[in-house]
């Protein structure tokens, strides 16, 4: 088969990562850093769109990349309606939802729109793969405890599924044939129970659920949070920032950088040690909880994300969970590679591109609305 060339785009809050791949092999990978002042100068997220697109095009031009040789463009999808995992062809319904911000505003909302703009002009397809709103939760996992609130699936779907596929392959199996718990440990931490290729339960990592993380609070005693919210001491924006951005390590220790915390511990800081160990304790506890979701029938537990580079942090988790199942460590995340792999599965005909918003065959419900 002819080699396939794919451009991958992953917009973050202050940078845009891009990669050009020939099949699975990267020939160009760049992190285009944007001046935070320039980003702050745009009133709405979508005002950044022409600027970010031009920076990408200028970089590709400077690096001598011939766009006409591309077979597809793939981007990290943003905050969309809840959808099952997979590769989706970018379409107007998706662009409308991303533009409206109805499901949330996040830099990754720009990805599909830039991808479609570049691909459209070249007459090639644009895709997104496993956005953070991937929702494959079982009905039982959606029940929160009060009827007014349903649990939501918002997690590091792209990296979780990519490493689960990689480790399944290492086991000589297909992702669709294994049961694994995947723990992504980045700025946020998400712990997913993957049953035969579907993430049937996972903590909402964006918004106050699960273990605390370098910059997020995770689950907190709810009555106390309500009391704090109505104490008159804080604005709602301040409370939200305690939950996301200034929670977790950042809240207790003033830094979200685990390397700095480990330095504090090495210098004898007892508080830093307690908080860091508590983060590992909460991660281990969440893994234990997910193992019950899978009735203990597990092929492995996979630890990934930036924190998985830390041998000390991995040790703190491993000593509590290695009796449950074999533990695999895949440090960092390789989202560009995961995006390209998702696009290649479709281009090579190994998988069909899904249509957004997703309709389950024979189902009465559309994910995100009634049929
Ligand atoms: N080599 C390392 N050793 C120890 N900790 C590390 C290392 N590299 C990154 N980390 C820590 O991992 C945490 C998450 O960093 P990372 O940059 O991977 O997350 P992110 O990409 O910002 O967030 P997310 O993965 O949630 O999107 C930080 O606390 C960082 O200090
Ligand atoms: C949990 C959703 C992904 C992120 O942290 O940005």
Automatic annotation (TrEMBL):
Cite the CDD domains for this sequence. ASKHA_NBD_BK (cd24011)
Q: Which Enzyme Commission numbers does its entry carry? A: 2.7.2.7
- Flavoprotein: present as a keyword of the record? no
GO terms in the biological process aspect are:
acetate metabolic process
- Identify a single GO molecular function assigned to this protein: butyrate kinase activity
Name the source's superkingdom. Bacteria
Q: Does the keyword Nucleotide-binding apply?
A: yes
State where the protein is found: Cytoplasm
Cite the InterPro entries for this sequence: Aliphatic_acid_kin_short-chain (IPR000890), Aliphatic_acid_kinase_CS (IPR023865), ATPase_NBD (IPR043129), Butyrate_kin (IPR011245)
Q: Predominant location of this chain?
A: cytoplasm
SUPFAM superfamilies from the UniProt entry: Actin-like ATPase domain
Q: Which EC class heads this enzyme's classification?
A: transferase
- A Pfam family: Acetate_kinase
Of the GO CC terms on this record, one is: cytoplasm
Query: What are the alphabetically sorted keywords of the record?
Result: ATP-binding, Cytoplasm, Kinase, Nucleotide-binding, Transferase
Coiled-coil segments: none
Query: Known catalysed reaction(s)?
Result: butanoate + ATP = butanoyl phosphate + ADP
Which NCBIfam families does the UniProt record give?
butyr_kinase, PRK03011.1-5
PANTHER family membership = ACETATE KINASE, BUTYRATE KINASE 2-RELATED
- Tell me its family: Belongs to the acetokinase family.
User: Under which name does UniProt file this protein?
Assistant: Probable butyrate kinase
- The gene name reads buk
């Amino acid at each position: 088969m002819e080699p396939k060339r794919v451009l991958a785009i992953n917009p973050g809050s202050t940078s845009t990562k891009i990669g050009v791949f020939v099949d699975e092999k990267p020939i160009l990978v760049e992190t285009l850093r944007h001046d935070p002042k320039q980003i702050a100068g745009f009133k709405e997220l979508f005002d950044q769109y022409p600027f970010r697109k031009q920076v990408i095009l200028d970089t590709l031009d400077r690096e001598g990349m011939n766009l006409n040789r591309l077979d597809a463009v793939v981007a990290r999808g943003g905050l969309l309606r809840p959808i099952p995992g997979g590769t989706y062809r970018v379409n107007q319904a998706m662009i409308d939802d991303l533009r409206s911000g109805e499901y949330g505003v996040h830099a990754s909302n720009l990805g599909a729109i830039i991808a479609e703009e570049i691909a459209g002009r070249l007459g090639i397809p644009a895709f997104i793969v496993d956005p953070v709103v991937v929702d494959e939760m079982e009905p039982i996992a959606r029940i929160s405890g009060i009827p007014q609130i349903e649990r939501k699936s918002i997690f590091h779907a792209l990296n979780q599924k990519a490493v689960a596929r990689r480790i399944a392959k290492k086991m000589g199996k297909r992702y669709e044939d294994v049961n694994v718990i995947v723990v992504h440990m980045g700025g946020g931490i998400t712990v997913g129970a993957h049953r035969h290729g579907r993430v049937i339960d996972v903590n909402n990592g964006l918004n106050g659920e699960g273990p605390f993380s370098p910059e997020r609070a995770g689950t907190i005693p709810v009555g106390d949070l309500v009391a704090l919210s109505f104490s008159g001491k804080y604005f709602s924006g301040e409370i939200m920032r305690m939950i996301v951005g200034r929670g977790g390590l950042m809240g207790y220790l003033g830094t979200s950088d685990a390397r700095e915390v480990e330095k504090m511990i090495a210098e004898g800081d007892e508080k830093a040690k307690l908080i860091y160990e508590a983060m590992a304790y909460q991660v281990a506890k969440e893994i234990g909880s997910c193992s019950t979701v899978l009735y203990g029938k597990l092929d492995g537990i996979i630890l990934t994300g930036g924190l998985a580079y830390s041998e000390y942090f991995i040790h703190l988790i491993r000593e509590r969970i290695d009796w449950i199942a074999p533990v695999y460590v895949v440090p960092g995340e390789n989202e560009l590679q995961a995006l390209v792999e998702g696009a290649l599965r479709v281009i090579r005909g190994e998988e069909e591109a899904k249509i957004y918003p997703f309709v389950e065959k024979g189902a009465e419900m559309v994910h995100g609305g009634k049929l």
